[in-house]
Automatic annotation (TrEMBL):
Protein name per its UniProtKB record: Pathogen-related protein
Keywords: Signal
Superkingdom per UniProt: Eukaryota
Signal is among the record's keywords: yes
Signal peptide: 1-28
Length: 270
């Protein structure tokens, strides 16, 4: 089996590969992305209700989504009934490339969740072993740092903070759960009086950064512990200003994610 020279870098870059893959599907194209976001905003606008009623709904995850077959790895997740799902698909039959399987948005403006499956082929790394080995050499925090590195290193990232991580054993194996906050600068980043600031391109006018909170679930599946391997990623994000209000529900959503055969998912139920 041919090994990649830099398997860890290859694994971490798969998140960026997803963005490139979605160029052909419209998610990463500004005009199409905006169109999808406007569609969600328009749909959920009629679902906004009082703060008290919203609090009562936080545990209602009655929108159950599952794609499972007897001899094929499938996936499932629970979403709130008031989230608008505009894309949901089974994992592709072929094991090549990256595929977006879910896109859904909630009543809180610009809250959204995505599910991705990406083929890793025969590449191996310490990050991959974290999910497949009974006693991985890498800790959960180290794995979370490696997998979130592409976000921290984006040119638009103004501020990045990796938050707590945990491990869940669900479905076909180990799921790594972690969160992070990102403040993005839509202009240029420079320094003034020893501090980094965000300014309009070509001027000294300051721009506000855009801050979002992310909760992520990641797992790796294989065929009887052997290649081909597949990376599964769930990303749920909300504006940072809404995180305190939405945190309980968002954590429930991401924690409900699982992959496995139909028999494995049946054991979990809905």
């Amino acid at each position: 089996m041919r090994r990649m020279r830099r398997p860890l870098a290859a694994l971490v870059s798969l998140v960026s590969l997803w963005k490139l893959q979605l160029l052909s599907e419209g998610f990463a194209q500004p005009h199409l992305c905006l169109r999808r976001r406007r569609l969600l905003d328009g749909c959920v606008g009629s679902l906004l209700f009082s703060q008290q009623a919203r609090a009562e709904e936080t545990t209602d995850l009655s929108q159950f989504i599952r794609f499972a077959e007897e001899a094929k790895t499938g996936w499932q997740i629970n979403l709130p009934k008031d989230w608008i799902t505009i894309r949901k698909e089974a994992a592709p039959s072929d094991a090549s490339g990256a595929k977006s399987l879910l896109f859904s948005g909630g009543p809180t403006k610009k809250s959204e969740i995505k599910v991705l499956r990406a083929s890793l082929g025969s590449s191996k790394s310490s990050t991959l072993d974290f999910f497949l080995s009974p006693q991985p050499a890498m800790t959960k925090d180290q794995a979370a740092e490696a997998l979130s590195r592409s976000y921290a290193k984006k040119p638009s990232t103004f501020r990045f903070k990796l938050l707590k991580s945990k491990v869940l054993e669900r479905g076909s194996g180990r799921i790594l759960r972690y969160g992070f906050s990102v403040a993005r600068c839509e202009g240029s980043q420079t320094e003034s009086e020893g501090q980094k600031i965000c300014v309009k391109p070509g001027s000294d006018d300051k721009l506000d950064t855009i801050a979002r909170h992310w909760e992520v679930a990641t797992t790796v599946t294989s065929t009887d512990g052997k290649e081909p391997y597949a990376l599964w990623i769930v990303e749920c994000s909300v504006p940072s200003e809404n995180w305190k209000e939405e945190s309980a529900q968002i954590n429930q959503i991401v924690d409900s994610f699982a992959v496995g055969t139909k028999a494995q998912l049946d054991q979990l139920g809905s």
